[in-house]
Amino acid sequence: MDLDQSVQRGTSGKKHKPVRLPLDVQEEIDCLYEFVPEVEQHFEVIDKIGEGTFSSVFLARLKHYPELDQLFALKHIIPTSHPSRIEGELRCLLEIGGCDNVMGVELCIRNRDHVVIVMQYFPHEKFQDYILHMSLQEVHDYIKNLLIALRRVHMFDIIHRDVKPSNFLCDRKTKRYALVDFGLAHKATVCKATENTAARTGTSTPVSTSARKGILTQVEVNNAGTPESQNNFKVAKETPSSDSKTRQYTPPVSNSLFARRVKSPRRMLLAKRALLAKDKEDDILSQRKSSSHRYQPTACQCYGKPQICSLCSARSNQNAPRAGTPGFRSPEVLIKCPEQSTAVDIWSAGVIFLSLLSGRYPFFRANDDLTALAQIISTFGSEAVKNAAKACGKNMICNPQQPCLDIRTMCMKLRTAPMSKQSSNKKKMTAEAEASWRQIPDSAFDLLSRLLDLNPFTRISAEEALKHQFFTDMESAR
Ligand code: ADP
Ligand code: MG
Ligand code: ZN
Asked: Which of 16, 21, 67, 324 is least surrounded by CB atoms within 10 angstroms?
């Protein structure tokens, strides 16, 4: 592989040359060298390739093996992250990753509170830059490979919780894919597989356990054969060790230094806020694990009415895990259903499929949960959302009623409607790709509706989805 050809800076398409980097990027690289000297001992950091709320990602090659073509992605995790969270991310990469389109880990380097995860570099383009160039066949490949990755993750009863295009990398040239970013991954609080088996054997209706019993109950997750029951994982270098959970977490020493060196105060603020939200969520989860609380029998006056009685206003807020990105959050996350399964990720995959079929990204653009829910209601109709809420043990009142849209018609309208901003992109679609969109099989929209099943208890699993007619149809048409 020729380095100069494979590495591009940003999205400009400029080939990487060993020329001078922008000053701020060079400064960040110098910071990285300073915080984790081992990085500089072994790697030559070439560029910065990504930045999220919790990390910066750099491109690097090995210093002492210049003949090696392999490039690496170095994820420098922000030092305010809790060690147990970093441990969780590493565990996922190590035990789940490395096959089935899930990113693996090569090495982990730690110096004090700074952790750098070393992965193989995965060349990819930005979703926004290729979504409108894709043929239907490519959309099929993309969704199939995403479902393969999710099937793998869900086998471990892990919810990724942040499935979105920037975390599912696609190399269009080589048709390779990689699910990255286990920073928000969590053990499912309810085991979808068990629910499914129960539903199939007729011992359970596809309704949440709390809805069935009318109370909030503690759901035990079977740990057998899952990552947490295997403690013999190894990481090539020093890492926050597996006993970090038992160790007291001391506030990072060099935080203030980090704050001083990281130029953007907004980024620090965002990261802190996100961390606080995530910590709160972890507390809720651990509380739920340690105590099984019930709702007291009440004489509520407001049930089903658009008002709140004094008894209800005295209740504490219900909390449920809600990590992720608003536009990709499933209805059960948005309505704070406390029992969440891997179905959460399937919804997000459905939202990506909806983007691909409609040519609109992001499809749902929301800054908060209520806006996100309102957008879901205006797409799928209030009745359907109400029924799904009921399955999660929630009574939803919606005024005015919203009809359900025909998704196929909506997608076709959006796909053909002119777009001022992206229209220049549109021209790049080949005639062949253009033609592929003239005959979309019905099975595509059937799969879409199964992924975007509002009810998490009947939503299709990744494994079932891979057997869907859509894949048979597309593969026989090849
Ligand atoms: P965050 O938790 O901060 O979102 P991610 O793990 O999602 O961090 O990485 C941020 C970005 O860096 C990704 O969206 C992707 O563009 C890039 N990236 C991450 N891992 C790799 C990799 N192994 N190869 C190439 N690019 C990567
Ligand atoms: Mg990310
Ligand atoms: Zn009430």
From this structure: 67
In ligand 1, which atom is closest to the CA atom of 120?
Answer: 23
Return the pLDDT at 226: 34
| Cα–Cα distance, 312 to 359 (Å, whole number) | 43
Low-confidence ranges of the chain (pLDDT < 50): 1-8, 10-16, 193-255, 292, 294
Which domains, from first to last, does the chain contain?
23-120 (3.30.200.20), 127-202+322-476 (1.10.510.10)
Q: Is 324 in the pocket of ligand 1 (CB under 6 A)?
A: no
The pTM (predicted TM-score) of the whole model is 0.79
* 187-204 tens-digit pLDDT: 998 765 444 443 333 333
Nearest CA to 168 among 117, 116, 127, 107? 127
User: Would residue 282 show up in a list of annotated catalytic residues for this protein?
Assistant: no
- pLDDT tens sequence across 12-69: 333 445 668 999 999 999 999 999 999 999 999 999 999 988 899 999 999 999 899 9
- Give the Å distance between the CA of 213 and the centre of ligand 3: 19
pLDDT reported for residue 52: 84
Tell me whether residue 139 is exposed, middle or buried, using C-beta atoms within 10 angstroms of its C-beta: 0 to 12, 13 to 18, 19 or more: buried
| Active-site choice (47, 113, 157, 162) | 162
Relative to the alpha carbon of 313, which ligand is closest?
3
